[in-house]
Amino acid sequence: MNVKTAKKSDFQVVGKNEIKIDGRSLVIGKPKFTADIDLPETLIAKVLYSPHPHARILDIDTSRAEALAGVACVLTYKNTERIPYTTAGQGYPEPSPYDTVIFDNKVRFVGDRVAAVAAETEEIVRKALRLIKVQYQELQPVLSIDAAAASGAPIIHDEEDSAGIYDAERNIAANVDIDVGDTTRGFTQSDVVVERVCELQHVQHTPIEPHVCLSYFDTDDRLVIRTSTQVPFHVRRIVARLINVPIRDIRVIKPRIGGGFGVKQEILLEDICALLTLRTGRPVLLEYNRREEFVSSRIRHPMRVRVKLGAKKDGRLTTIEMEATSNTGAYGSHSLTVLSNVGSKTLPLYNKAENIHFYGNALYTTMPVAGAYRGYGATQGYFALETAIDELAEQLGIDPLTIRSRNHIRVNETSPIFEKLGEGREGVAQRMKSCELPRCITIGAQQIGWKEKRGTKVRRGSKVHGVGMAISMQGSGIPEIDMAAATIKMNEDGSFNLLVGATDLGTGSDTILAQIAAEVLGVPLSKIIVYSSDTDFTPFDTGAYASSTTYVSGKATEKAAQDVRTQILQVAGKMLEEDSTDLTIKGEQIIGHNGQTVSLAEIGHRVAYQVDQRQIIASASCVPAESPAPFMANFAEVAVDTETGEVEIVKYVAVVDCGSVINPHMAEGQVEGAIVNGIGYALHEEMIFNSRGSMRNPSLFDYKIPGAADIPPLEVILVDSYEPTGPMGAKSVGEIGINGPIPAIANAIYDAVGVRLRVTPFTPQRVLAAMGKLPD
Amino acid sequence: MTEKENTMMMRIELIVNCIRKTFSISPTETLLSLLRRAGYKGVKQGCGSGDCGACAVLVDSRAVNACLTMAAKADGRQVTTIEGLAEINRLHPLQQAFLDEGAVQCGYCTPGMIIAAAGLLMRNSNPTETEVKEAIAGNLCRCTGYIKPVNAIMRAAQSLREKEEDECKNR
Ligand code: FES
Ligand code: FES
Question: By the CB < 8 Å criterion, does A391 face chain B?
Answer without folding.
Answer: no
